[in-house]
Structures are given as structure tokens and as C-alpha cells.
User: Fold these one by one.
Assistant:
Number 1:
Amino acid sequence: MKPAQRPLELSLRLAFYILKNKLRGRKRFPLVTMLEPLEMCNLACVGCGRIREYKPVLNQMMPVDVALNAAQESGAPIVSIAGGEPTIHPKIDEIINSLVEKKYFVYCCTNGLLLERMLKKIPPSKYFCWVIHMDGMEERHDESVARKGVFKKAVQGIEMALSQGYRVCTNTTVFRTSDVEDLWQMFRLVKDLGVEGSMISPGYEFVDAPDQNMFLTRQESHNLFKKLLDPAKTQGMQFYNNPLYLNFLRGERDYQCTAWSNPTYTVMGWRKPCYPLADEHVQDVAELFDAELWEHYGVGRDPRCANCMMHCGFESATIFQAISTPKDWATLIKAGAAHKGGITAA
Ligand code: SF4
Ligand code: SF4
């Protein structure tokens, strides 16, 4: 099937939103609200920090109005819903349908196990996209999520969602154990199925993950992504991340993290400072944009940031830096117009 295209309105809306905030003189503002309406999951992936970090509150479900208020408080035009497994939340359809009604661009990250029953409750929309977790072909993916049969279910879910007119992307976390050839095969497969694009990011070394050896150092990430994203080998694949972030992953560009652009709201409040780290949870999102806070976090400032190259911290950094670099801005506009990456940071 021909790959779907991301709506041009998304890139235009985000570009306008950035411009508006810049003209208002805001130095730090969100691009994507990361909403985690629960932390419970029906899987226990080896690289997952969330299900372990939030063990004491795994049974808590965020009320619909609290989730909607968080999106409004942040104000970002994109809302990325994760967790935990969002489709377990008993009112996830209400949360998503209300956000879509308000014209947020909503991405729902799921392992795909419960997708079929969700399709009956959430209608397709250009404002809504399923993001299916895919860490490799069958053997590798099932190993990564620690359960057999999940890959097949995820592929069935993608096919079913696409055939019913939904926008669909995939999301891949790359670890030291990832097999480049296997990932190429998977990226080709999902493109042939017709997904809008594949998002990629190296995994963050969550202290709560049971196997600390699986996470890549910065140098290892550069080496692996140089190979994985070799233009000669990536024909027939469609990445969702913007081209500047892909250059960053290959080690061809350097950025400081701008994780304040992806504030993360959980059942305990806003993670402070960022999606990977929660030194505390706070109730006021404005605390995440405080200049003084960011004197203590980022590469070279906190040892826990040394190996972090996650898109929540660095894809937005490529966008913010591009604002003052016309050549880079042109690259993003071009990619956005071609519906390949460009001005999105979901
Ligand atoms: S599917 Fe996602 S939330 Fe669930 S265990 Fe795996 S990584 Fe964690
Ligand atoms: S570099 Fe540090 S502050 Fe930035 S996203 Fe990564 S862990 Fe968070």
C-alpha cells in the first residue's frame, strides 16, 4: 500500500505556533505535551522504566478532565499519549475524542494488543494517529517486549487501522542489542504496509530497567545510527523524525537538550525536569520552563544526561536552533512540505 502522508496542516500550525511564541518573547515553551494517563501496562518490556518507576501508582487512572486540563495548561498543539499502555485506560476514548474535537494533533503510542477494540470507539481523523511500538521483526520484537505473539498482533493492528482509514506510524527504540539488518527489514515492511513513517530514538538508560547493559553510550549511538541510517541502505524506508535529528543521531551535528519543549504529565503530576528524569513531580507546568532549572540539566550539566539522545530532548532542539539558522529552517520546511519529518517533534 502507498504510504500515507502526514497532514500539511500539522507543519503549518506548528510553524505558526512557534512564530507566535517567539514574537511574544517566550524563550522556553512546549511543542508537544506528553500525556501519560496511566502507568499500568499489559506487557513488561525489558527496557521499560515506567512500569517499574511507577509501581506504587500503577492502578491509578487519570480522570478525563484532568488529562484535558493538562493539555490546555501546556498549550502545545501536539499531544502524545503514552504511559503505561493507554488503551487499558477505561476512558481513553473520551480523552482522545475530546482532544481531537479541540483540534490538537494527537498521537497515541500503543503496543497494539488492544487496538481492535479501540478502533470501534475512536473514529479516524486527520488530527489523530496511532503509533505502534515495533522494535524489530518477529523474533527481535517479541524478545524486546518479553512475550511471544506481540509482533503478529501489532502487524495485524497496523493493517486493520490502515484499512479503516486511520493515520498510523510506528515507534522504535534502539538498544545495544538491536540488529541493524533486522530493523531495516522491519522499516521496509511497515512502509510497504502503508504507515506514515517510522519514529526512532535510542533508549534512555532508566535506572529502574532491569538490564542496564542494553543501553547505548553516546558514541555507540553515533556508530549504530551511522550504519542504520546509511542513505544507501535506507531506500524504501520512511522515517518520521526530521532530517536534522537524524543527522544528530549519526553524530554529524551537536545540540544541547531542550526537553522543556516536551513536558510530561503523569498521574503524579508534571515530571521535573523531563520525560526520562523525574527528580520530582510538580503541579504547575510553568516550573518546567524556568531558566534556572536548565542550568542543572542537559549534556555536560548532569551525568545522567551524558548518553541521552532521545527525541523528546533533542528533536525539538533541532527545531529551536533552526529558527536562527535559515539553511536549517529551509531544510525543515522542505521536509515538512514533502511530509517527511520537518517541523514536527512528536
Ligand atoms: S509496552 Fe510500553 S509501557 Fe508497556 S512495558 Fe513496554 S515499553 Fe513499557
Ligand atoms: S539530556 Fe537530560 S534533561 Fe535532556 S532529555 Fe535527556 S535526561 Fe532529560
Note: Residues 41, 43-45, 48, 50-51, 83-85, 111, 133, 145 surround iron/sulfur cluster (ligand 1) (CB under 6 Å).
Number 2:
Amino acid sequence: MTSPILSVKDLKTYFYQDEGVVQAVDGASFDIYAGRTLGIVGESGCGKSVTARSILRIVERPGRVVAGEVWLHRDRGNGHSDAIDLTQLDEDGREMRSIRGGEIALIFQEPMTSLSPHYTVGNQIIESIRLHKGLSARQARQEAIEQLRMVGIPRPERRIDEYSFQLSGGLRQRVMIALALSSDPRILIADEPTTALDVTTQAQILDLLRQLQEERDLAIILITHDMGVIAEMADDVAVMYLGQVVEKGPVDQIFHAPQHPYTRSLLRSIPSILAAPRTKLSTISGSIPHPYARPQGCPFHPRCTDFMAGTCDAFQPRLLPVAKGQWVSCFLYQTPEEPLAVSK
Ligand SMILES: Nc1ncnc2c1ncn2[C@@H]1O[C@H](COP(=O)(O)OP(=O)(O)OP(=O)(O)O)[C@@H](O)[C@H]1O
Ligand code: SF4
Ligand SMILES: [Mg+2]
């Protein structure tokens, strides 16, 4: 595997509210590679979307990135490369604005939140193309038609002058993807991109993402709570629980040799991945703690069948390697005293 193009290291994003502090992301670490898909999976509220928003520096107040690093690596040609830590940039500054929607693009579950009802879909794509590529209005319109064709919009020369509300859900999501890709990003973050769609349309959109990834060597972060989507799409998986990555590794290892008790229960909660490729995660025993009442020690301990009193409720496990490429944060594989063997 080549070197990563995005490295997230020990990212922490907290929301400071009158009632208390929500540690929405509390030490997330993972790497993203060109041409590969990282699936981020976990139950609702575990910090998947806030992680995505933190990378792009669009965390809503009263939230903010309080610690960690997000390194964007750039190939400068002739064997030279450099890296920039996005957490150090001014979130409204010129550089971050050009990276957001430029090198790193985002698509959401609901295209209506990103597509304006006041402009034709063409105008929105043309504007983005002109901004990022500096083309003339005529060239940009031609390119926008090509982008719409590329994402499978039929008769794009007519659709380009329509408004998003005139399109079906599936076509809207395709327009969203065309808009996201119009800046030629290297990284695409897709936050539940198919959750709002029917099963057939879901499959088509996932196929489209895979095809575009292959054509453009795109790195994709795919956020979902659908293990079927992970099985189908991801090369690597990061399992999140209460703001932390508790296990990460290649998709085959995560599915066939899960090590963290939470990953195991997530997988057990699906009767058969092959038999039911789009089964949603059913609830596992216990419930997610209230955001203000974070458990001491291992965040999963109140729900864990392997719980060890005096250890799991007293110390925080760290994400450490257990097998090739597979990392786990659990005292079944480390002692509390163990020094950090490998830096994250
Ligand atoms: N604007 C906000 N203000 C306060 N807390 C927030 C805000 N946005 C998110 N949170 C909290 O941060 C935590 C993580 O939320 P996040 O939206 O990242 O979860 P998620 O994994 O994306 O869940 P879902 O699968 O439901 O989309 C939750 O406890 C949530 O309540
Ligand atoms: S550290 Fe302890 S409580 Fe946490 S997942 Fe591992 S065994 Fe369970
Ligand atoms: Mg979310």
C-alpha cells in the first residue's frame, strides 16, 4: 500500500453546551488512501458525521476541534510531497475554503440540503467549475453537461436547466455527486449517501461511486450504519463507538476476525451479511450512554460481555495493532500499564 493522502490522528471535537460537554469525537485516528474506500461504521450518535465535519472544518458552534491532527498530503511531483495540518488552518480562511469543496468534497444523505432550490442544477455546477477551474461560462456549461452525463443523468443538455425539486431522489443524488466531483477532488466524503434512497437506487448510486473511484483514483470515506454497504464498498473499516475508533483494519479481517467486543456484537446483530446484504444494525444489548454521562475507563464497558472489573472501568484502552493492519482498543489485547507500542 502506498502512503496515505489523509491522516487523522487522535482527533477530538467537543460541543460546549450549558448542560455539559459532549465529547462527540474523542480520539479518532485513521488513514485514507488514493483509490481506496474507508468505511466508517457505528451506531447513531457515535461521532461519524462530526468526524467528517471536523476534517472539513465545518463543525457547528458550540462545537470545535480541541485536539488532534488532520494531515492532508500532497504530491508536488518529482518525488516531492508536502503535508498540511487542516486543524491549524483558519476555518473561514482562503486555504481551507479552497480545500473544502476543492481537494476534499462532501456529499450528504439528503441532497436538498446542498442543492439550492433557487438555481438550476446547471448553474450550481457551472459556478463550482468556474471557481475551481477558471473556465469561461461557455466552457464551464459544456463541462457541466459532461459531468452530468458522467454520473448517468439522461439527456443532460436538458436536465442542466432544471431545478433540483424537478428531479427524482436518485437523480438528485447523482447531481450532488456531479457537483461534488466538479472540482476534481482527490478525496470524497460520503455521509450516508444512499440511506434516503430505495434499495435499487441505492445499488445504482454505490455502483456509480465505485466506477468514479476507479476512473479517478478517488479516496472515499463512506459513512454508514449499514454493514451491508460496508461489506460491498469498503476496503478498510473504522468502527466507532462514543467518539472513538475502537477497531480498524482491512474489511476482510474486520468481518472474518473481528477482535473488539463491540465489532463482534455489531456483526452478530446481522443474521447473515450475505443473506441480507442491506440489513440495518439491530440494537445490541444495553443502550448508548447519554452524551453527558460518558462512562469512565473503556467507553463500551457498561455494555460489554467481556467486561473486567477494576480494569475496564478504571483505565482507558488505546488503539494498538493486534494483527497486520488491524488495530483494536481493548484490554483483552493489552494491559493498562503497557506503554504505547506503536505511535498512531
Ligand atoms: N450541533 C451539535 N450540538 C451539540 N451536540 C452535537 C451537535 N452535533 C452533533 N452533536 C452530538 O455529537 C455526537 C455525535 O454526533 P454525530 O452526528 O457525529 O453522530 P453520527 O454517528 O453521525 O450519528 P447518525 O448515525 O445518527 O448520523 C452526538 O452525541 C450528537 O448529539
Ligand atoms: S476494554 Fe474491557 S469493556 Fe472495553 S471492550 Fe475491551 S473487554 Fe470490553
Ligand atoms: Mg451522521
Note: Residues 15, 22, 24, 42, 44-50, 60, 63, 225, 291 surround adenosine-5'-triphosphate (ligand 1) (CB under 6 Å).
